[in-house]
Design brief:
It contains 10 helices and 13 strands. It is α+β, with helices and mostly antiparallel strands and about 300 residues long. It starts with a strand and ends with a helix.
Length: about 300
């Protein structure tokens, strides 16, 4: 089953909801970063959280999450947009950890002390930034606390991963239910209680259920409407041309030094794609800079 996200709303309950399957997304990130089982599980929580927060945005907006803890994984950085394009990396991808991997293991590996930072590009003059201190290291609780306190939107969050005894990811999923403005919170509390009594969503997805099944069980007896089903995928924004521009920004002296070394290599932190610029490519960039500098001299001359 390919990854996707469902958007729903319930006029009866006064809530909106998101449910996603993110298994392929997480496995692709794990493959690219060659993560250990505990790092794979952490990325499962982080990337799924990014999917849900990105789905709250409007078109062309983006959100970035940074989790910095005192555990051996150290840091996790994730990005997502409203269209379901997600990417991310973990600072220490090869941290060893005894199997099996459970939620408490991930919390310990990330660290129970640190910061969760959320940055949103809402296409306004300034970026929005919110920050909270970590209290448990359990990312679903930290995200819920951030939404409830920093954004002041009553929210219920469930993130989960299921792994086999060998440390291979079987399923990753997420649920986010938010109270609509002006609605009473009683129904949201009831939904939170229902969710706590159900088997973990990732476990149910690993057994063959779907996000539709998760929502149908959670909202049993409550009417709701499915607004959209949207694919989600690991997709990086890096490219050869963007890497080329990054080298150009270094300036002539640095590029001359790179030419003397024979090549330049640009590695993307998010997807581990590698862009190699040989001596000919670097000399072409240098020629462009020199030509631009020469033209600027003519542009600065006063007309006679």
């Amino acid at each position: 089953m390919a990854d996707y996200l469902l958007r729903i709303w319930s006029e009866e309950a006064g809530v909106r909801g998101l449910a996603c399957l993110s298994t392929d997304l997480v496995n692709e990130a794990a493959r690219r970063h060659r993560t250990s089982p505990v790092a794979t599980a952490a990325l499962g929580y982080g990337l799924t959280a990014a999917v849900l927060l990105g789905a709250l945005l409007k078109s062309h907006q983006r959100v970035a999450l940074k989790v910095e803890g005192d555990g051996p994984l150290r840091k996790m950085v994730l990005e997502a947009d409203a269209t379901g394009r997600v990417l991310g990396y973990i600072a220490e991808p090869d941290v060893p950890w005894p199997l099996p991997i459970g939620p408490w293991d991930v919390a310990e590996a990330l660290g129970r002390n640190g910061l969760l930072t959320v940055v949103k590009d809402l296409r306004l003059k300034n970026l929005y930034q919110g920050m909270i201190s970590l209290e448990t290291g359990e990312l679903e609780k930290e995200i819920a606390r951030y939404l409830n306190r920093s954004e002041q939107v009553a929210s219920v969050v469930e993130l989960g991963v299921t792994m086999d005894k060998h440390g291979q990811l079987l399923a990753a999923s997420g649920l986010l239910i938010q109270l609509l403005p002006g609605e009473e919170p009683a129904v949201l509390r009831d939904l939170a209680h229902r969710l706590a009594e159900l088997p973990p969503p990732a476990t149910r997805l690993a057994a063959g259920q779907t996000p539709e099944d998760l929502l149908a069980t959670l909202f049993a007896g409550i009417s709701y409407e499915v607004l959209q089903m949207q694919p989600i995928e690991f997709q990086c924004t890096c490219s050869y041309e963007r890497s080329r521009q990054a080298i150009k920004v270094l300036g002539e002296d640095e590029i001359v030094a790179l030419i003397a070394e024979g090549e330049a290599v640009v590695d993307c932190h998010f997807c581990h794609e590698r862009y190699v610029f040989n001596r000919d490519a670097l000399e072409a960039i240098l020629d462009e800079l020199e030509e631009a500098a020469l033209l600027s001299l003519f542009d600065e001359e006063e007309p006679t």
